[in-house]
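Lab channel / #folding
Pinned by the channel admin:
"Please post every new chain as: sequence first, then the structure tokens as a reply. Keep commentary short and put observations after the output so the thread stays searchable."

First post following the new format, from NK:
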Amino acid sequence: MRQHPVSVESEVAFLKAEWRERKDIPHIYSRQSRLDNTKRYLVTIHNARPRHTAGDLDLDDSGFILVEHESKVTDFRDKQLVADVYFPEMRDLILAETGAAAAFPVEFYQVRSADPAHFFDAYSLYMHCDFSPNSWTKLARHFIRAAGTEAEYSDEEWDFALYNLWRPVGGPVEQDPLALIDASTVARSDIVEYSPVKDRDDGRAAVPLFNPAQILYYVPHMQLNEVLVFKQMDSRSGRAMVCPHTSFHDPTAKSDSRARESIDIRMVCVFPKR
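Reply from TO:
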């Protein structure tokens, strides 16, 4: 059995501290704008496999879990195959793991590689959240309508949660794994909105400011049959809201490690209010 370190140290980029007090928002849409708005911190990133083995990971506390799943998809760049086969597979998985009443895929997804054609298809090189908490419920209803359902889910009767389902494709992860912040260690005051568009403030997402109280995790050497499921928004109170995440350089990786490829898709789940 492969032995993995208890933790590794690596530099991770966070939004610069100056944005905590500013009234405007940062714009991160290119390599240069990322460098202008972030600062790298040397952090300890803990191996999450012992917590997984102990059953100590929970979507409503730590905000992430590791799930074994064999997909029938052989080519994740085949958009029709992903829509027809992988989306239903991941819908079944998230329903089983959350007990949600229903789940709807976000049609937009990404297959990430070392040499992408677009900035946002590259590995993320700064800690971020997928969406903004300030507009989450409105966005959830948009995604549900886009999925073509005729069901109505009102704010008065339903809660909404968004999950990211991340897995390697092409081969196990040997370099540039994903790091997540344990959601139970993320303060809401550390989450700041930003725009991924150069000249507009719409289409907002969010990024965390660095806080030494945050605890980071990764899953070393993820396999093709492993899915990292993590929370990205939740309207329910008393539960994990978000796991900020990014790729990072693993200092224990071999110099000839294969470039990582991965796919991440998102599912909106609905829960009846209690």
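NK: The CA atoms of residues 69 and 124 lie 24 Å apart.
TO: also worth noting, The domain at 7-272 is CATH 2.60.120 (Jelly Rolls).
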